[in-house]
Amino acid sequence: MAFDPMLQRQIMGRFATGVTVVTTRYGKQISGMTANAIMSLSLDPPLIVVSVDRQSNMHGHLTQGQCYAINVLKHDQEEISRRFAKPGPKDFSDLELTSAATGAPIFVDALAYVDCRIVEVAPAGDHDMFIGEPVAGETLDGQPLIFYSGQYAQLESTST
């Protein structure tokens, strides 16, 4: 018997995740998408995965660009997450951007970023896993934006 995909979505929605915007550069064009389907695959060698629907525009952009940056969003960047979650062209005009080794856009005020060169693409159902080798990264101070049960959330501050 096949597993109900809606039940899968409900179950996985109970897994709290950080929120990221994955960006790439292909030629002079830049592109991005909100993603929580990312993971640290290996530390030796360092490898990071971004899972992307084969039907999405971002899939083609990553294939052309052969690189990506994962921008980990801060608790006050929900609007950015929503903007990059919508279909269609993305507006980067009001964002302060920089780049590192690959040229993929990096949000200056992100909580953290990792810049990766794509070393392999592995099929997985209706998605492809873009496996990247990290070539640059940085962490900053702050609180992360969290996604849980279909809603944005924040970590509670705790006093020690």
Explained architecture:
Strand 11 (145-148) and strand 12 form a beta hairpin. The radius of gyration is 16 Å and the shape is globular. It has helices at 5-13, 57-65, 78-85; strands at 17-18, 20-26, 29-35, 38-43, 46-53, 67-72, 97-98, 106-107, 112-124, 127-139, 145-148, 151-154. The protein has one domain: Roll (Pnp Oxidase, Chain A). It has 160 residues and is an alpha+beta fold. Strands 3-2-6-9-10-5-4 form a 7-stranded antiparallel β-sheet.
The residue fraction in helices comes out at 10-25%
Helix and strand composition category: alpha+beta
Top-tier CATH class = Mainly Beta
User: What name does the CATH topology carry?
Assistant: Pnp Oxidase, Chain A
Quick one: how many beta strands?
12
Distance between the termini: 50 Å
Number of self-contained structural domains: 1
Shape: globular
Report the mean per-residue pLDDT as an integer. Answer: 94
Helix count?
3
Radius of gyration, taken over Cα atoms and rounded to an integer in Å: 16 Å
